[in-house]
Amino acid sequence: MEVVDIVSLITNVGFPVTLCFILIRYVLDTIGERLDNLDASLKQLAEAIQSVQRKSEQE
């Protein structure tokens, strides 16, 4: 292989692969934050439901 072939291979394959890794990292970070928010919301909901159940049992 000549240098031109190697540069062409890196340009054609290397850039898309690098871009895919960057996009995957961004998506995983974004989904991770959303899942953390969803988890916190579900915990609050569970606590609210338990509170309502306790109040209804006391009556």
From TrEMBL:
Species this protein is from: Paenibacillus enshidis
Domain of life: Bacteria
Annotated protein name in UniProt: YvrJ family protein
Record field: transmembrane: 6-28
Keyword terms: Coiled coil, Membrane, Transmembrane, Transmembrane helix
Keyword Transmembrane helix recorded: yes
Coiled-coil parts of chain: 28-55
